[in-house]
Amino acid sequence: MKKLFLATMVGLFSATTIYAQSDDTTPQFGVKGGINLSNITGDDFGDFGSMTSFNLGLFMEIPLSERFSFQPEVLYSGQGYNIITRDQDNIFDVDDNVEYQLSYIQVPLMAKLYLVKGLYAEVGPQFGFKVKEEIDYKPASDGGDVEFNSDDSQMKIFDTSVAAGAGYKFDNGFSLSARYTHGLTNIYKDNTIFKDVDAKHSVWQFGVGFSF
User: Fold this and answer.
1) What mean pLDDT comes out for the span 124-142?
2) N or C: which end of the chain has fewer CB within 10 A?
3) pTM reported for the whole predicted model
């Protein structure tokens, strides 16, 4: 009888512990940032070089079960591409690469699946709002920035992408992540000379985060 009682208590304690873990929906807020390696992809574009920039922002991880979480984010993201130039004699006073620089406020909505403790995979849509557009013909030095206003802009204000990645979250709240985002919509406006051009964002992100 005593053994049966102990076995029953152990079983109830185990079930309660598992239930408590899976029912923990306390959100965790955090900050994150890292490096962007961005480019554009599409059937109508040839060889452009990738551009290096950064991302920085906030996130909230909402556990829905022991292994599954929903993570909305708000990020500043520097994107664009390098325009390869042929001005080897520097006649036009430009660097080797001219960068088409775009700044976005990105809102990824990520579903996270923890494969084992700490290690997770993630996927979800991303919605971007353009806040700046310019060409920098001296990216290796100061100056050379030519900013577009709303009338001269070639790019759409709104962009949609799909994101997928993986990462590892340590017990102390720090995390390491790698993510790839691929554009779903053409980035050029319909009322420009590029209206029928197939061009979409392609961005690799490598970063660190910390949960509170």
Assistant:
1) 88
2) N
3) 0.80
